[in-house]
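Memo subject: From amino acid sequence to discrete backbone structure tokens
Action wanted: Derive the backbone structure tokens from the amino acid sequence.
How to read it: Take the token row as a discrete description of the fold.
Attached in line: The record itself begins immediately under this heading.
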Amino acid sequence: MTGQLDLYGVFLPGLSALALGAYGLFRMMTSLFTRIGLYRAVWHPSLFNLALYVTLVSGLSAILNWLQT
């Protein structure tokens, strides 16, 4: 993999695809967490959401790297 994604002749960084996938997972997880009431136990929901998103992006990146080897 070259680290770039060709989208109809426009080259995008590979990280943008990971960020988009992580955002989809993030939205699903936050709706699930809202339904089960997890945010009542979280001190600062915005910081929790940021940490969750960063964890998802890095996790997807690690999984992709592991699959390529």
